[in-house]
Amino acid sequence: MLSALYVRAWCTSSRPRRLVALLALSTKVLVAVLPASANHIVMHGGPFAGVVVALVPHPTEPETLYLAAFSSGIYKSVDGGRRWSSASRGLEDLSVLALAVDPVSPRTLYAGTDSGVFVSRDGGEAWRPAGRSMAGKNVRSLVIAPSKLTVLYAATNEGILWSRDRGASWTPRNAGIPSRDLRVLRLDPSRPTRLLAAGFGGVFRSEDEGRQWRAVNQGLTDLRVRALAFDPTRAETLYAGTAGGGVFVTVDGGRMWRPLTEGLRNLTVLSLLVTPQGELFAGTVGGVHRLQPSGTAWTPVGEDVLRLTITFLTANPHRPGTVYAGTGGLVFVSEDRGGHWQELATAVTGPAGPRPASAGLQRRGEAQPKNQGGESR
How far is the C-alpha of 77 from the C-alpha of 57, rounded, in Å? Predict the structure, then answer.
C-alpha cells in the first residue's frame, strides 16, 4: 500500500498548460500536474490515471455514472461507481477538462479537452470531434441550454463560444469580456437567458444568451474565480469560489458580493456544490467544508478527506444526501451529507487495462498507512 502525496505549487501565469503525467516512486504512484486553471500541483496515486475533474450521474439511470480524468479520458460505471471501464474510444485527446450529458437524450455526451470538444452519441462507446472551429482550444467548462438542447456554451482560453447545432459549429460570444481566459460557465436555473462566466478577471454576466456581457464584481475582492454555483432554492443567489479569498455570495444576481469565509479553514476553493435542499459544500486544497441553508459559518466535514485537495464536488440526484468528491486519481463518496467518506471505486479498467483500485488512503475502520514519501501541505 502506498500513501498519497500532495504538493501545491502556485503559478504566476494564467496561461493554460497541458497536464504532464509522470510515474515516480513506484509504477503505482501517479504524479499528476493539475491543469494551470487550478494553479496547484497534486501528486497522487489512484486507479484513474490522471486528475479526476468531473463526475456526472446519468439523469434517468441511477446506477450509471460518467467520470472524466485529465490525461486518461472518460470512464463509465453501470453499478453505482464500484466498477469502472474506459469509455474513450475515438477520443483523440485524453486531457479532459469538462463533461456534460444531454438531460433529454442522455446517450449524448460532450467532453471538453485541451484541444477542443468531442461528442458521443452512444453513451460513451465512441467519440468524434465536435466542430472544426473548436479544434485546438482549451475547453474548461461546457453547458447545455435546458430550454434549447441544440444550444451549447463553452468556456475556453479564448473566451465563450456558442453552438446552436449540437456542437457542429461554434461562434465566439465575448462582447464585453476583456479577459478571454475563462475557467467556469453557469446558466441561471431561474432565468434561461442569463449566463455567468468567470476566470482570473472576475465574474461576467449576460442577460441575452451570451450576446453581451458585463463585469459584476462589486465587493468581490479576489478576482481569481475558480468556481461558481447557483442556489436552486433561492433565486438570484450565487456563490463564487476564489483562488485565495475563499467563498463570496451574492443575493442579487451578482450586483453586490460579500465574503462568506467564517469557519473556512482554507481559502483556496476549487469547487462548489449547492444541493437541491440548499446545502452548500466547498472543495478546497484542505478538504471539504459544509454550510447549512441560511447558515453563516462553515464546518469542515469528513476526517477521511480533511487533508486532501478537492478538485470537484457533485451530488447524486437519485440519492439525496450522497455527495462525490474528487482528488487526484481518486473519487470519494459520502452517503451522509459529507459526514463520512470512503473510496468509491473497487475496480477500474483503463485504456491500458486493469489498475489497482486504491492508492492506500485510509478507509473507514482501517489504520492510517505509513507515509512513505513525505507530505507537503
Answer: 10
